[in-house]
Design goal:
Methylamine Dehydrogenase, Chain H; 24 strands; 4-stranded antiparallel beta sheet; mainly beta; 1 helix
Length: about 325
């Protein structure tokens, strides 16, 4: 049994475990049928860790329009986002609401599957990243031309309180601009420019103060020690670098045992115990969706469960100590 005692999301998670929640809510829409994967099964007992029971988590993945809440080894709640692409970012807040992006829209929902906020992307733009800032605001990015734009939105009133163009460093498609954009605890912005292959750190006025080049940089997370954990989707690497751009730690997918090796990776999160969880779309059922490694590269958890779940683009571990709506408190 997971112990949520004293953890920020203890009350929030309990709201999703109630027996009176509807099986189908007013914000839900039918999704495309999930293609059946021949031979798909639950996680093999021989794999490191405890399968679905390793962590309580909120799970989303590109190519699967279902959001899963998993507690004590069971899927306890599912949200169907309807047809279209794609889940990329998701946050459960201490209030119990869930904030997420779905490419052409972003929303906040309640445990009984009602919208409390909904934002439709303007024609020609996409939303792949958003971050809660306090209980009532969200920072999100519109991938758009001529430049992507950061929006600071009041999720209670729906008002866009400010909007700024982001200095994207090279020509790109709208789709290829951003998958992650994060406000740090220091008040700066981490902007991993996917197609341009560079992570920028911007000051409060959106001027560049630091950069790190990495092909296909999908995500960047500022860690408690001041280093930055970056994901290179093209190279299959998750790398921690310091302010001078020196590699402090990394894990490469090619170095993992073949049985446990994910087929590509997107986001990752650093747990407060120092372990790193890598998320993957999983090669259409061929490989694991999630792997957790220690700082010494010991594999402590591998999840390959295509019977119950789909791809994993991002997950939120729900018994971590950081407050989700406090920028920099959760390393994801």
């Amino acid at each position: 049994m997971h112990d949520f005692q004293g953890k920020p999301l203890a009350h929030a998670v309990s709201l999703y475990l109630r027996d009176d929640l509807p099986a189908w809510g007013p914000a839900e829409e039918e999704t495309e049928p999930i293609p059946e994967i021949p031979g798909a099964g639950a996680c093999p007992a021989s794999y490191p860790g405890n399968g679905l029971a390793e962590h309580p988590m909120l799970w989303v993945g590109e190519g699967d329009n279902r959001m899963f809440l998993i507690v004590n080894g069971r899927i306890r709640w599912v949200f169907h986002a309807g047809k279209g692409w794609e889940y990329d970012d998701v946050w459960m807040l201490t209030s119990g609401r869930i904030l997420f992006s779905h490419m052409y829209w972003a929303a906040e929902i309640t445990p009984d599957k009602r919208f409390t906020w909904h934002f439709k992307a303007p024609e020609g733009s996409e939303i792949h990243t958003l971050q809660p800032v306090g209980e009532d605001h969200a920072l999100m990015v519109l991938n758009s031309h001529p430049l992507p734009r950061a929006l600071f939105v009041n999720t209670r009133s729906g008002a866009v309180e400010w909007e700024r163009p982001i200095p994207y460093p090279a020509p790109s498609s709208v789709h290829g601009q951003f998958r992650r954009f994060r406000l740090t605890a220091e008040g700066t912005y981490l902007a991993p420019c996917l197609e341009a292959g560079v992570v920028l750190e911007l000051d409060r006025d959106f001027r560049e103060i630091w950069r790190y080049e990495l092909p296909g940089c999908w995500a960047a997370v500022r860690l408690k020690n001041g280093n930055t954990l970056v994901t290179g989707e093209k190279e299959g690497v998750h790398r921690e670098v310091d302010r001078q751009g020196r590699t402090v730690w990394e894990i490469r997918l090619e170095d993992l045992p073949e049985e446990y090796r994910p087929a590509g990776s997107q986001s990752c999160c650093r747990l407060h115990n120092g372990n790193t969880i890598v998320c993957s779309r999983g090669g259409n059922g061929a490989t694991p969706q999630v792997i957790e490694v220690t700082p010494k590269h010991e594999i402590v958890w591998v999840l390959k469960d295509w019977k119950h779940l789909g791809p994993c683009t991002a997950l939120q571990i729900l018994d971590e100590p950081g407050i989700p709506e406090q920028p920099g408190a959760c390393f994801r």
